[in-house]
Amino acid sequence: MAPKSLCVIVQFALLASGKTVRSALPPLGWNSYNTWSCSPSEDKIKQSAEGLIALGLDKVGYNFVTVDCGWPSRDRNSEGRLQWNATLFPSGGKALGDFIHDLGLGFGLYSGAGYLQCGSTDLPASLGFEELDAESFAEWGGDSVKYDNCYATSNTSMVDSSSAESQSPVRFQHMAAALDAVNRDIEYYVCQWGIGNDVGEWASAIGNTWRISNDIYNAWRSIWRITNQVVPYFRHTTRGAFADMDMLIVGLDVLSVEEERFHFGMWAINKSPLIIGAVLDSEKLSQSSLEIMSNKEVIAINQDSLTKQAQLVHRDTEAEWDIWLGELSDSRQILGLANWKNDSQTIQFDLATLGIASARARDVWAAEHVGVVTGVQNISLAGHQLQLWLLSDIISANPLVSKAYHGATDASVTGSARIVTCATGTCLPVGAKVGDLRGDSSVTFSNISSQTAGRTLLGIDFINYDYAFTTAWEFGDNTRNMTISVNGEKAKRWAFPLSGGNWQESGRLLIEVDGFTRGAGNAVTFAGVGNSYAPDVVGFELLE
Ligand SMILES: *[C@@H]1O[C@H](CO)[C@@H](O)[C@H](O)[C@H]1NC(C)=O
Ligand SMILES: *[C@@H]1O[C@H](CO)[C@@H](O)[C@H](O)[C@H]1NC(C)=O
Ligand SMILES: *[C@@H]1O[C@H](CO)[C@@H](O)[C@H](O)[C@H]1NC(C)=O
Ligand SMILES: *[C@@H]1O[C@H](CO)[C@@H](O)[C@H](O)[C@H]1NC(C)=O
Ligand SMILES: *[C@@H]1O[C@H](CO)[C@@H](O)[C@H](O)[C@H]1NC(C)=O
Ligand SMILES: *[C@@H]1O[C@H](CO)[C@@H](O)[C@H](O)[C@H]1NC(C)=O
């Protein structure tokens, strides 16, 4: 753990840099959108704020209430200032802020970096009015501003995700500067949707949180989609800067209890803000959903002082499971065993391949101690279960060793596949990659030496920045399929998540591949599936 004095210095430095403040840990709160879409009202917001307290959610850390889209009047006033819609919010913004503050909660505001607000055809957003609107946010007592990206380029097109302007950081940086200039501490929640390149890099510099994806959708499949999109953002998640996986759909009656635990746990270990979207009314919110969102141990993992996002370390796509591992304070780790299959199964893995010789494990959702764990584990998981093991007293295993690295430039390609040279310092560690790999083409690495016969762990460096935006509400899932076959044996398929913030940033996935013979002379072939493209292949190594 960092010494206390260091944390204080870091916090002070952030405060001193301006009025856009950072919460050291991921924000925990409530937002009106998932229940009321763009139709909030004073009554709805007040009841929700009171409901948050009545349900005891403030006691476990949820401490702000945000009015999402739909709150302003159609017209700015004669000075050009935003007005609250007086029919929906008869008391106005300042009085609502006072009401929320009197409950001991923060007041969350919403606007956008475009001409108009999302979900409307005529409500104003802040483009061109940044300084004036930031002043209004401060006058109303706003403690945070969620800043959306609709109507970025015109008054008529609500969602433009492809133009350079819609993807540009400039409009978001403008509001960050405007918030810095006002005399109130306001947290900034960038909601640019993760479009364009290097969003984690520019957004983490200005936002307390930044959305990485299109909206969450009321279905299980959006959990898989957003999870595959958050993978590379671990590089940017840090104290005061958190990748936002979007508001929770826990309590919206669209997931099973097991799936709600999975969703909440996956968001928690990735250090996403945990923003409740459910109606905060004990008559309407199920007890199980309330218990999931109130689980103190899971919230503590999210709020851990080390603020490190978990990483996807192993994936078996055909068996439909993942292993996630994240560092926590006090030399602890969180291990996430994710069963994507809608059926129970037993997964097997060796803790040594995760760098762990032994550890004391606690099953977080079951709130039970597992005991000391070591070596190969066979874990039974229910359908769509995310088992969370909190590991402490960890003894490290000897690291697995690679004898040789096999880079794209050593491969032989067929069909559409081609070897591409990258700019200096990109496509690491090789500086080149195999691109345009489809089902009718392949990449083969020959004469690969293995110390093991049969199954071996491969560390694969790949590039996939084919992010799902326009396809997000259908079946777009941010993955690309690739098959791997050793020595001509049956090919097996893996779904590769996003690897970075552009088409030159590599990611690594560890997978177990069967079919090796001991000694030199193995051939490893990568191929796409059907007409769709595989990820680009930078290279790989055997970890033994
Ligand atoms: C305020 O909201 C109501 C309900 O959505 C709407 O009918 C009305 O036109 C709005 N008024 C203004 C001035 O925007
Ligand atoms: C959008 O509408 C506003 C108000 O009618 C106008 O001032 C502005 O120029 C319009 N912008 C675009 C890009 O059409
Ligand atoms: C999972 O299985 C259950 C029970 O068979 C079914 O009701 C549910 O629709 C399935 N969920 C998904 C996301 O396919
Ligand atoms: C796990 O299962 C395998 C067979 O699938 C068995 O050989 C092994 O002993 C089991 N290990 C443990 C720790 O239960
Ligand atoms: C195969 O690899 C071995 C070392 O692993 C090397 O000695 C040999 O020259 C290689 N053969 C070919 C044909 O590249
Ligand atoms: C990957 O392959 C599976 C199985 O064929 C298929 O269902 C899925 O849609 C594919 N995904 C992509 C992104 O092509």
Automatic annotation (TrEMBL):
EC number assigned by the record = 3.2.1.22
Q: Which InterPro entries match?
A: Aldolase_TIM (IPR013785), GH (IPR017853), Glyco_hydro_27 (IPR002241), Glyco_hydro_b (IPR013780), Melibiase_C (IPR041233)
Domain (Alpha galactosidase C-terminal): residue spans on this chain: 319-391
Disulfide bond as a keyword? yes
Kindly list the biological process annotations in GO that this record carries: carbohydrate metabolic process
Mind telling me which CDD domains this protein's record contains? CBM35_galactosidase-like, GH27
- What SUPFAM superfamilies does its record include? (Trans)glycosidases, Glycosyl hydrolase domain
Keyword tags: Disulfide bond, Glycosidase, Hydrolase, Signal
Q: Name one Pfam family in it.
A: Melibiase_2
Say which domain of life the source belongs to.
Eukaryota
Q: Which GO terms describe its molecular function?
A: alpha-galactosidase activity
Q: Where is the signal peptide?
A: 1-18
Establish whether keyword Signal is in the entry: yes
Q: Which reaction does it catalyse?
A: Hydrolysis of terminal, non-reducing alpha-D-galactose residues in alpha-D-galactosides, including galactose oligosaccharides, galactomannans and galactolipids
* PANTHER family in the cross-refs: ALPHA-GALACTOSIDASE MEL1 (PTHR11452:SF75), ALPHA-GALACTOSIDASE/ALPHA-N-ACETYLGALACTOSAMINIDASE (PTHR11452)
The record's comment on protein family reads: Belongs to the glycosyl hydrolase 27 family.
* This protein's name: Alpha-galactosidase
Q: Which organism is it from?
A: Ampelomyces quisqualis (Powdery mildew agent)
